[in-house]
Specification:
four-stranded parallel sheet, disordered N terminus, alpha/beta, 14% strand, binds pyridoxal-5'-phosphate, six-stranded mixed sheet, 359 residues
Amino acid sequence: MTSGPTATGPAPTRFILDRYREQLPVSAATPRLTLGEGGTPLVRLPRLEREAGVGALYVKLESMNPTGSFKDRGMVLTVAKAAEEGARAVICASTGNTSASAAAYAVLHGLRAYVVVPAGRVAMGKLAQSIVYGAEIVLVDGSFDDALRIVRELADRHSVALVNSVNPHRIEGQKTAAFEIVDELGDAPELLCIPVGNAGNITAYWRGFVEYYRFERAARLPRMWGFQAAGAAPLVAGHPVEHPETVATAIRIGNPASWQGATEARDASGGAIRAVTDAEILDAYRRLAREGVFCEPASAACVAGLLKHAREADLRDASVVCVITGSGLKDPDTALGVEAVRHETAARVEAVEQALGWG
Ligand SMILES: *Cc1c(COP(=O)(O)O)cnc(C)c1O
């Protein structure tokens, strides 16, 4: 950190490495390549806001990033720094989105991407992304936590840059989402709700809010509410979970790498990290879809948690931001499991009329 924040003009660039370069480890030697990450919409949802009983409810649509998740914010910086330092290849463990993002930014910079993922546990859209971007994929018979342990050791043994969130550039890039929220609202919200898996993102948002507060770009700090899936809630239990299980595969993690960052964000902000069940997650997933927001199950966890706990916290006048971390298109299997009205008919007007009950 060398100086205060950059003033944002009336038409801020979407390119976060330029827009927030004063707050990031970006130098003249850092390659400036972009896929258009950041600058994501902050959308108010009045119906859901009334249902939750909060003053103002916004969703930060990180699903609108180039590969469909917030991972792009950290990856644009991390892969640029790896290229700057002369890396020829990157490696990561992933529940899907990190690998999709790593593969995209690696190909942008002309690097090889190696991704290690838990076999049978990655949503189909995410696997498709890693395939088309040209990553070399290793499916391991184990969990994300196993995959992370393996890639950490591989990065020690071989000349390949590790781009998981144990790489500090990831958190640095991801904190720009907090800057954007403050820049847009004019201050920090009173409450931020966020899903927690490996816990890099809650760590990053807290860092972003604290930096803006120190630079007097924000007059207050938000409370941080993190939500884990009940079957993968080590931070709630207070110890690692050996066999994490949840429909929300992006947060199916038993031993978060940023454990300390998450508990610091919780404690310093007067916040909480709680668990929501898969049923509550899928309920919020369908509820969000009825507002026009199609997210992946992990993202819905934070809205599930807000709906569950808002009343007890008395947020009637509070502004709340929920982070929609990834796009629903990544996980078509979950979407196709939602009950829908479907008809099969002959391709004739009368047949369709009859199926619809209009005939
Ligand atoms: C990675 C991810 C998360 C979890 O973020 P962490 O930084 O691992 O806590 C949540 N939702 C989606 C869609 C993700 O890709």
